[in-house]
Prior knowledge:
With 274 residues, the chain is α/β, with parallel strands linked by helices. 38% of the residues lie in helices and 16% in strands. It has a seven-stranded mixed β-sheet.
Amino acid sequence: MIFDLHTHTTASDGALSPSELISLARDNGVGCLAITDHDTIAAYEQIEASQLLDLRLIVGIELSTSWQKHGIHIVGLNVDRDNSELRAGIARQQDARVSRAKEIARRLVKTGIDDSFLAVQKLAGDSMIGRPHFAQHLVEIGHVKDIRTAFRRYLGNGKTGDVKQCWSDLPEVIQWIRAAGGTAVLAHPAKYGMTWTKLRALVADFAASGGQGIEVVCGNQESNITKKLVDICNDFELAASCGSDFHQINSWSTPGKFAQLPDTVGKVWDSWSI
Ligand code: AMP
Ligand code: MN
Ligand code: MN
Ligand code: MN
C-alpha cells in the first residue's frame, strides 16, 4: 500500500481543495493519505466520509517551530482532532501567523515595499496566512518576476521576511501532538540546509523531547540522502515516515510518487490501529 503522509490543501498553502487532493491521491494509487496543512486541521471539516471510498485518511497537521534559529516543521500524524490541548496549541499558532504576517510586512517596508499586510491577508482569505502569500503579492505588484525570486530575495531562509521567533518551541509542539494521541514526525530533514552534524543535534533534541518519527523519504529526494536519513532514523530509534509534501500540480512533487521506505526501518504506521 502507498502511504502519503505529508500533503497540503487550500486550507494552508496548497492549490487543491481537500476533495480535489483526495481524488488525485486516489488516482495515483495512494491507499493511506494524511493531509498535513500548516498549523491547521480545517481541511478535515470539509471532507465527507463518502468521498473517501477505499482511501484511508489519517488526521495530520504540519506545525511550525524553531530550533537554534532554524525554522523547523513537525508533522503530527493520527491525532485526535477534538483534543483540547492540540486545539489550544493550534489557536496559538494561528495567532502567531497573523502577528508574524504583520511583522513581515513591517520588515518589507524597510526594503521599500509598501505595507502589504492587508493585501496579503486578503490573498490568504480563509487559508493560513504565510510567506507564500507574500510571495504571490510581490509577484502581483510586479516587484519580482516569480515566486522563486520572492523567496530568494525577501522571504527565504535568513532573508528580511523570514520571521521565525514567533512559534512555540519544539518540546511544546511535540507535546500537543502527543496529548492528542498522535505521532510527532520531524518533517523534510534534508531541507533545512543543515550539515549532517547539525541535523543529528536537532534529531537528538527532537527525540529527547518526545519526538517519535522522521521523514526518511520526502518527495523526489536523492537516494544518497535517503540512505543517510535511514541511518539517522535507526541511530535515534525513530519510526520512519514518508510523503510527497505535495502543494500543487506540475511542481516538484506529486501525491504518492516517491521512493518506498526500505525494509530496514520501522514505520510510523506500525503503531497505529488502521
Ligand atoms: P510559512 O509557512 O509561512 O513559513 O511558509 C513556508 C512555505 O513556503 C513552505 O511550506 C513552502 O510551501 C513555501 N516555500 C518555502 N521556500 C520556498 C521557495 N524557495 N519557493 C517557493 N515556495 C517556498
Ligand atoms: Mn508549504
Ligand atoms: Mn514544511
Ligand atoms: Mn509541508
